[in-house]
Amino acid sequence: MEDWALIRHLHRSEGLSQRAIARQLGIARATVASALASDGPPKYERAAGPSAISEVEPRVRALLSVYPQMSATVLAERVGWSGSISWFRERVRAIRPEYLPADPVDRLEHPSGRAIQCDLWFPAPKITVGFGQEAVLPVLVMVAAFSRFIAAVMLPSRQSMDLVAGMWQLLSQNFTAVPHEFWWDNEAGIGRRGRLSEPVTALMGTLGSRLVQLKPYDPESKGIVERANRYLETSFLPGRSFASPQDFNSQLRQWLPIANARRVRVLDGRPVDFLDTDRAHMLALPPVAPKVETVTTLRLGRDYYVRVAGNDYSVDPTAIGQLVEVHASLDRVWVRRAGRVLATHERCWARRQTLTDPAHVQTAAALRQQFQTGPPPPPPGDHLMRDLADYDRAFGVDFVTGTATSDGQVA
To answer: Which residue, 134, 184, 177, 180, is CA-closest to 158?
Structure first.
């Protein structure tokens, strides 16, 4: 999947031909053509196995705490590692920054249209999510590195599909263009250990862009979005109360135009005035919107409920025992089978709740009564019954006189 996303990035963003991409990546041109022609990423599933490096990792960390610059080959020898050295090097590369000394960075220059910095902000006040529950919910914040234009939206969770859906919503509604790069920290829903999650990789391939995960403990590299988080904390939150996540997003949408019209010292102007310059150097939105909803297939049980993000939603019980598709977006949950919608619910942001459609309960009661009483008797006069005397006449037998008039043949 990573090759698929890289091929599309090189073709859309860098403008390379199929021949140039094949030469650069060392792959066949047919592979490049197939990746560019496909509408979705290739799927490959592999069963996860136990990790052997977890047994020696505590000793590796103990050595790095004293000798943070010790090479991976020497570490492998000291801890008695006998497996793949490349796998060991990759793991050491991931954990070594935790033990390195401070590494200052210089101020970065951001050309127009190049990057959007992304981060999750967790506002302090708990939001009422219904059913007597309150929660601290993540807010996805995206800031164009050149224009400093801010876009943000509250999400129900920090899972991969919710992050992907939030990114696409902000891109399509606020930026109306795609940067060449997205900068993220090591958020679990985006990816870990140098590998992006599958939904994020699919999004990047569809957009033709590239996602850069910054080194751990390096907040300066995305300092623009970090300052935007602090600005939201000090300028948006004070004096506000929120009745629901939808109310939070509504107030945030009304306030963001004010924030983007403020004067920024480093620009000597307003972010909204520099946004068109940013857009002019970005990529166009893809002609086909990426899939940003979770789709799972399961067999509907007798209790006619499906579980999505910790909550149960009722489904038309006529589909019990059948395979159904469960779709979940940021604000809606619906169930389908063969193109027919079996249920639709507003997504619940609370946890451990049961959402029931009264029509489904009524249908279940009717089906239960029909099952318990058995099928109804057929209406009168609808029975196909024949007089037995017709068979006597057909065989020429008269049981009254005891004679047979048949010629031995049966019609």
So the answer is: 184
